[in-house]
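hey all, quick one before standup. I had two proteins in the batch that finished overnight and I want to keep them in one place so we stop losing track of which output belongs to which input. First protein below, input sequence then structure tokens straight from the run.
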Amino acid sequence: MAFQRRNTDKKGSAARNAARRDGPDQGWIWGRHAVLAALANPKRKHISLHVTRNAATELDATFQKLADIELPGQITARLPEGAVHQGFALKTGAPPAESLNAVLEPTHGLLVVLDQITDPHNVGAILRSCAAFGVRAVIVQDRKSPPFFGALCKTAVGTAETIPHVQVTNIADTLIALQEAGRYVIGLAGEAEARLGDEVAANAGPGLVLVLGAEGTGLRPRVAEHCSALARIPMGPKAESLNVSNAAAIALYEASRFDPRINPKPE
């Protein structure tokens, strides 16, 4: 496998500035789990690989030959400020999105829709929960969603490579299409009267769709309007709300209780 070589000799602030200018089609991934998972993903087109001598021992023979062996500080200089790389940095292309048609039918499995959640740490954490609880794919808007690089991949701990994503132009119109295909769409909303557990139990199955909105603003009005139902996570009075990635984990756990792959019925 041959890597493309682009701007691999930049150092210091020049490298950091270049990292910030990367377009949506390519970017940096750092951290052991994130880089090793990305290298194992045949759908990504890699550009350059930079590792410390110790980190190189964890690569297979092919990638050892292709990697640039560098000091930790040299790798740090290539990345955005604050990136904790653990001796691994990879410049690579974005993973291709699946089409909506590939996940439209209810039999294709549980879907998660993210309505303008822009924090890469939250999206990465949600992807990790999606992997744990058997989600078929995550649907995001093609604008106002973070690219599959950097902090998103670091937080996802490799699961950004294993959970397919679908990019759509309009979330509300997508929810309409999902319902027309026979899916049941539950939007999480703190002001809803219905409880999440009740809605999931009444409509559980592979055709379920969970929709989460951005922290603070929640679901946009037109998105909420086109959900089959809105539901809340029951909470005590000492906390006003949950971080969206925590809310996602709770919602996905509720759905997984009815998934025989994760919770098989005792014989």
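OK second protein, same deal, sequence then tokens:
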Amino acid sequence: MKTIDKLVVCGVGLIGGSVALALRQARLVNRIVGVGRRPEPLAMARQLGVIDEISTDWADALDGADMVLLAMPVGQMDAVAAAMAPHLSAGTIVTDAGSTKRDVIEAIYRHLGGHLANVVPAHPIAGAEKSGPAAARAELYRGRKVVVTPLPENSPEAVARVRELWAACGAVLHEMSPQEHDRVFAAVSHLPHLLAFGLVHDLAGRANAEQLFSYAASGFRDFTRVAGSHPEMWRDICVANRHSLLAELDAYLSELAYLRALLVAGDGPSLEKVFDEASRARNAWADKAFPATPSGE
């Protein structure tokens, strides 16, 4: 990969900070400028060596920038794209790390129409429950999938450059259309987060919440792990992808209704059949996706 002379990272937390650290560790970036809404994370990122300098002005940040990574919550995309637009140079390549693509692309077309050749959306399939610059780590993307969702107007050179950026972080590259991306991740990412948040919220609001949590063990921990994730980020993701997410939620509600009917009927054999089919599917996926990780609790 050709070295990036100046990289601008908007959102210097786990996702953006980890890209910065990975490129720095690989010695593929000379200068990293951080941009964000709040001074505290930016100051921490500079103190930790995630970024080299802080910019509070897009005109200054984008001056001479080779590449921009937009790693803030997707709900900020419209405002950020509008703020960037007047100062974006023709040769600067822009990519993002948003978990949804519909809203991101709408903002790109609305504000960055003159730069479509160089604005290439993407989504790293990596994360953790912790957020902020202190959670960033250089190895976050190693062996993890990154989905690039190019626009028809993107130049092949810009797409290749964005692919190189993520490959330099150790990621495994995939491509799909933005529409397919949002449908797929509504099912396997956004719905599980919604369910985990909902379950914990339900239990936490009960009169005997303290008792319930005192008996929760590894099964509860594993099922609700993602409920410890960044609330603002997941609010934005769920709202942005609500059309696909609602379709998945409706399908899941139908499954729950079926399970409820089996419980009402006391139909043990049918329940066992559902559990067996689910167990086989889950273990087959886990063995393929995480071959070194034993299945089960």
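Flagging for whoever picks this up: Residues 178-204 form the longest helix (27 residues). Confidence is low (pLDDT under 50) at residues 293-297.
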